Amino acid sequence: MSETKIDDRIVNAGKLIQSARAEIGTRIVGQSRFIDGLIMGIIAGGHILVEGVPGLAKTLAVNTLSDVFDTDFKRIQFTPDLLPADLIGTMVFRQESGEFVPRKGPIFSNVILADEINRAPAKVQAALLEAMAEKQVTIGGNTYALPKPFFVLATQNPIEQEGTYQLPEAQLDRFMMKLLVEYPSPEEELQILKLMGKDKPLLVNKILTPGKIEELRVAAESIEMDEMIEKYIVSIVTASRVKDRKYPFVRLIEFGASPRATIFIYRCSKVKALFEGRDYVLPEDVKSVVYDVLRHRIVLSYEAEAEALTADDVIKEILASVPVP
To answer: Does the residue 141 lie in any domain?
Structure first.
């Protein structure tokens, strides 16, 4: 394919992304990194874990995202009494025919909001995460493919841990990124007050269809990445796993990131370049996405916890130690 066609594709993709950002911005004030992370996850074909205290518009942002994307959307409130059948569906008896037929659950949608995922027991979490990995579910011995695109956004509350079921590290690894939602600035909160203080619905236009999402993915795949950048990504991930004492941060890490992190950084870096309107990846693109991809994959040691360090603090040390090409 010629260079001109690739450039045109990237330009058109950039316009679509800007339109989606602007439309989401009619409801959501600020939180640009959070919104970009959601859009990036959909384009890169991964699932997103969102963490933030209550009241920061996590659910509203996902609802708005589903309205801007012309796709099916389901919100599932995870609770301690939720069962896997409530999520994926079950077999029901049809009296008129005398047969058991499948009744598909809410997971058969394009966009799933798993609200407060850590409030459901492990068997429900496992049912969701299996669907995320396999893009299919089994009901009554029959396997059913999930719709395309299939995108899961799970939220969890960092406070009020009583009565919750923490996601194991192996299950956290299924999420492409973990996004942190921060408090708004005073200026942004004033805008929120003026925007949301009135009891008036804010309508948004549908910008993207499943077909256009696929076009964005194709455009992202067409972006070039030099082999030196690929080696840089591998160096960052493997640095989180080595026990070489030449790295001062090794004492802070109990377990490092898996190869899945390497793949996800690779994909997200290309989407970041697409956001910037470039047809090639820079080291800055890699650095921009590393925190979101790695923060839930690095298991900190007791020493790090004793020093009140976070995964982001350790990632910052990794980036400072790995040479930039």
So the answer is: yes
Q: Are residue 48 and residue 197 in the same domain, yes or no?
A: yes
Calpha distance 24→61 (Å, rounded) = 8
Query: 144, 102 in Cβ contact below 8 A?
Result: yes
Q: Is residue 261 part of a domain?
A: yes
CA torsion angle for 303, 318, 290, 311 (degrees, to 10)? 10
Summarize pLDDT for 241-268 with one digit per residue, the tens.
877 667 778 888 888 888 999 999 999 9
> Exposed, middle or buried by CB within 10 Å (0-12, 13-18, 19+), for 210?
middle
Residue type, 242: V
Q: What is the CATH number of the domain that holds 64?
A: 3.40.50.300
User: How many domains are there within the chain?
Assistant: 2
Kindly report the pTM of this predicted structure: 0.86
179 vs 160: CA distance, rounded Å? 19
268-323 per-position pLDDT tens digit = 999 999 998 888 999 999 999 999 999 998 888 888 888 888 889 999 999 998 99
- Going by their DSSP bridges, the two strands 142-145 and 136-139 should be labelled as antiparallel
For the chain, helix, strand, coil in percent to 5 are: 50, 15, 35
Q: Which residue type, as a one-letter code, is found at position 195?
A: L
307: Cα separation from own chain's centroid: 29
Residue 58 to residue 143: CA distance in whole angstroms? 32
Q: For residue 41, what are the domain limits? A: 3-211
69, 42 contact by CB (below 8 A)? yes
CA atoms within 13 A on the CB side of 185: 6
Q: What is the pLDDT of residues 1-60, one digit of tens each?
A: 344 455 778 888 888 888 888 888 777 777 788 888 888 988 898 899 988 777 777 777
Q: Domain containing 241 — which CATH number?
A: 1.10.8.80
Residue found under tokens 């030449």: 246
